[in-house]
Amino acid sequence: MRLITLALAALLLLIQYPLWLGKGGWLRVADYEAQVEAAHKKNAELIARNAKLDSEVRDLKDGTGAVEERARYELSMIKQNEIFIQIVGKGQATAAPAAATAAPLH
Fold first, then answer.
1. pLDDT tens digits, one per residue of 45-72
2. Subunit arrangement (predicted)?
């Protein structure tokens, strides 16, 4: 009787192996679920980034305000007959005036 009990317990453990550690086992499924969750998070971040870029592209194509803003802040351009005033704080070093080197913005 004891031999039968041990044999049945061994068979039960052998049957449980694929359930826990096999190709479609619970541990692997949990790992796949974590990977899917990470992929969903990454996709959400990329969708938000793409929406921001799409909005910026549409703004650059349709309006001149975004182009003018970029020209002012990134290229230090000014409009014709416009005066550029830069206020420098005490701790900041003084640089060459941007108005003297900036190209006019038409």
1. 999 999 999 988 888 788 777 778 778 8
2. Part of a complex composed of FtsB, FtsL and FtsQ.
In the chain, domain spans: 13-105
Separation between Cα atoms, residue 17 and residue 32, nearest integer Å: 19
Looking at residue 1, its amino acid is: M
Question: What span, in angstroms and rounded, lies between the C-alpha atoms of 33 and 41?
Answer: 12
Query: Residues of 2-28 as b/e, b for ≥16 C-beta within 10 angstroms?
Result: eeeeeeeeeeeeeeeeeeeeeeeeeee
Please tell me the pTM assigned to this model. 0.47
Sequence-distant (≥ 6) Cβ neighbours of residue 60 within 8 angstroms = 66, 67
**Bridge partners for 104 per DSSP:** 78
